[in-house]
Amino acid sequence: MLLVPLKTAGIGDPVVRLTKKNGRLIGGFTRWSSFATLQGGYWSDAEDVLQEPFEPWLETLLQQNPQLVPLSEIMTNDCLFFLRLKGLHVQRMQGKPGYMHAESKSVFSPDMQSPVLRVYGDPHLGSIVCECQNKWIDLKRPKMTHYLAELVGPEATCGCRSWLDRRTHACLRFSLPKNWHTH
Fold first, then answer.
1. Distance (Å, rounded) from C-alpha 91 to C-alpha 83?
2. Among 49, 15, 1, CA closest to 144
3. What is the residue-wise DSSP string for 109-122?
4. What residue spans define the domains of the chain?
5. Which member of 91, 106, 116, 152 lies 3.0 to 4.6 Å from 122 by CB, making a disulfide possible if both were Cys?
6. Using CA atoms, how far apart are residues 149 and 36, in angstroms rounded to an integer?
């Protein structure tokens, strides 16, 4: 058995429990962690919370008026993890209520009291977040602890209810159990 805290760029650091079965390392999330974590490359900060002072372009972006995007419901950490599985890699911003998406040089900030998303920068980011949230809802709102985890090779593929989390030195496949209710 191997317990590995998994860095997720500020969404939370869940502990993944992996056991060897039939020559494969498989398992799932057990609980939250706040200590040494698996994040990819050694000394990489790609999975850490983004610290102040922020780069000048980011400070300028945050001074603009955000686009307000209605969500289907209030954003949760479980949904934020699903966004990551769908390929939307973001970093939580220390001291700011938001997540930076470096690829689009944009920020989104979910309102924790109402189903609204503030988007700074590329307005398309808001529609991507909404679409992913709706897919998560259609899947019956899986929690992080519902996913099965498997350490796989870089050539691995995924099916309709599985997703790959590729890191510099590891690739994990997360999937929902076969008996997961999607009626």
1. 12
2. 15
3. EE-SSSSEEEEES-
4. 2-175
5. 106
6. 19
User: 130 with 153: CB under 8 angstroms?
Assistant: no
User: Which pLDDT does position 63 carry in this prediction?
Assistant: 92
- Tell me the per-residue pLDDT of 64-83, one tens digit each, with 9 for 90 and over: 999 999 999 999 988 988 99
CA pair distance 63, 56, nearest whole angstrom: 11
CA atoms of 107 and 121, how far apart (whole Å): 7
Tokens of 46: 């790609």
d(Cα 55, Cα 104) in Å, to the nearest integer?
15
Tokens at 23, concatenated = 């020559």
**What is the Cα 130 distance to its own chain's centre?**
14
Distance CA 172, CA 25 (A): 10
Residue 183 has pLDDT above 60, yes or no: no
Contact at 8 Å (CB) between 117 and 71?
A: yes
16-53 tens-digit pLDDT:
778 888 888 888 877 666 554 444 443 344 456 677 77
Whether 135 contacts 115, CB under 8 Å: no
Q: pLDDT tens digits, residue range 105-160? A: 999 999 989 999 999 999 999 999 999 999 999 999 999 889 988 888 888 898 88
Q: According to DSSP H, which parts of the chain are helical?
A: 56-62, 77-85, 124-138
Phi-psi region of 169 (alpha: psi -120 to 50; beta: other; left: phi over 0): alpha
